[in-house]
Amino acid sequence: MTTANSTSHPYAGGIAVLTGAASGFGLEAARLALRHGMRVVMADVQEAPLHAAAAELKAQGGDVLAVVTDVANSESVDALAQATLRAYGVPQIVFNNAGVASGGLVWENSLADWQWVLGVNLMGVVHGIRSFTPLMLEAARKDSAWHGHLVNTASMAGLVSMPNSGIYNVSKHAVVTLTETLHQDLALVTDQVHCAVLCPFFVPTGISQSDRNRPSHLTNNTLTQSQIISRAMGQKAVARGKVSAAEVVAQVFDALQDKRFYIYSHPQALQSVRTRMNDILAPHAPTDAFIDRPDIGAQLRAELAKGVHGD
């Protein structure tokens, strides 16, 4: 798969590893990496969709390796790294992208909810960093012209703290600070390996149907009213997203060339981040999340009251 602009891209001929590659940002990143002339390793926990996506790209001439991977399992991510080395070598881009969504009032989330979301969203990134960064540092030591990037998918939920989605917020805030620290740590030892954090807002992807990939031993068969509301609101917001996954991924590749650290799909959403920073510096309690949309806040409170009073 070669295009007119593939030879001009600095990573043409290089290797990209993408988790969550069967759909959403991961799949679009695989497509774009191939258009830029890269070899691509696609990883996902969904075996059939992963192989179908890889077959589609191979049919278009892409040099693709599909590796079924559970990012919540360190041994699975280690195996992904070794499969990449055997097939192609050390990757120039590692996109720790796999993620799941779950919400509800924080005290109503079960232990299984926490283990599932943090296992994928946070530990999946941790495992990606631990498995691939040493390989990239070694490649940089051997070749002064070699450069690599780690990109970690967080969310605008990693920069603000919206109600009724605490478990997701916690996982994504952790990814932001993890990546910020990774940036600082890398700067201590190299100027050839860089990192960035992607903070998308509502973008139409498959994340609102995350439960399809939930392990059976972490299943939550009894949803509370707050969890039902969170799921419905999340699905509605994601479906209405105006910015596509392909557009976001194009921004990611542009950011890599410019060595930009924070990558936003919706810069206009940063006003909420400014409000949070002002609250921290004031300091005072967090501003009402619905101060600009009191109708939504009133609706959420009314829906939650139904669960409390059994109406």
Structure keywords:
alpha/beta; Rossmann fold; 7 strands; disordered N terminus
Short structural summary:
By secondary structure, the protein is an alpha/beta fold. The chain is 49% helix and 12% strand.
Describe this entry's structure for a reader:
The protein is of the alpha/beta class and 311 residues long. It has 9 helices and 7 strands. The chain has a single domain, classed as Rossmann fold (3-Layer(aba) Sandwich), CATH 3.40.50. The protein has a 7-stranded parallel beta sheet, with helices on both faces. Strand 4, helix 4 and strand 5 (148-153) form a beta-alpha-beta unit. Residues 1-7 have low confidence and may be disordered.
Q: Compute the average pLDDT.
A: 90
Order of helix and strand elements from N to C terminus: EHEHEHEHEHEHHEHH
Classify the beta-strand content into a percent band: 5-15%
Low-confidence parts, pLDDT < 50 over ≥5 residues?
1-7
For the biggest β-sheet, the strand order reads 3-2-1-4-5-6-7
Helix content: 40-55%
Query: In the CATH scheme, what's the topology name?
Result: Rossmann fold
Please identify the structural class as seen in this structure: alpha/beta
> Largest beta sheet, briefly?
7 strands, parallel
CATH 4th-level superfamily: NAD(P)-binding Rossmann-like Domain
What is the C-alpha radius of gyration, as a whole number of Å? 20 Å
Number of domains: 1
Regarding quaternary structure, how should these chains be classified?
Answer: single chain
Beta strand count: 7
> What is the approximate shape?
globular
Total number of helical segments?
9
CATH architectural name? 3-Layer(aba) Sandwich
Distance between the termini: 58 Å
CATH level 1 name: Alpha Beta
